[in-house]
User: What shape does this take?
Amino acid sequence: MPHSSPTDLPLKIRLASDYLFTSASDNDGQYDSGLKEVLAPVALKLKPPAMYRVILLNDDYTPMEFVVEILRVFFALNAETATRVMLKVHTEGKGVCGVFPRDIAETKATQVNEHSRAAEHPLQCDYEVDD
Assistant: This one.
């Protein structure tokens, strides 16, 4: 038997963005009042994206000034911080340029590698999961 008004419905009807809805229908699936029944609240638990370290790898040919330029242009580091990272790359074999979500880390590493190749330097940039 079709319901004459929304107040006659046995379930409480609510329209809210945090609930999952379905159309109301009777046993044979023919009746659709256009109203929605509340099925269950949707609990969205978002976790922050995984972060990745962008690292520069040392080589014996790329000038230190070029590495500092890369750090200033692509990672917006000031001269002092860029020099400190460059010296870490030079002395320890690699240095962290920054920590970003995966897409940004991948883009920055690709941009640095392409710029280095265009300038005919073997400097390599990569990214890895930040623990």
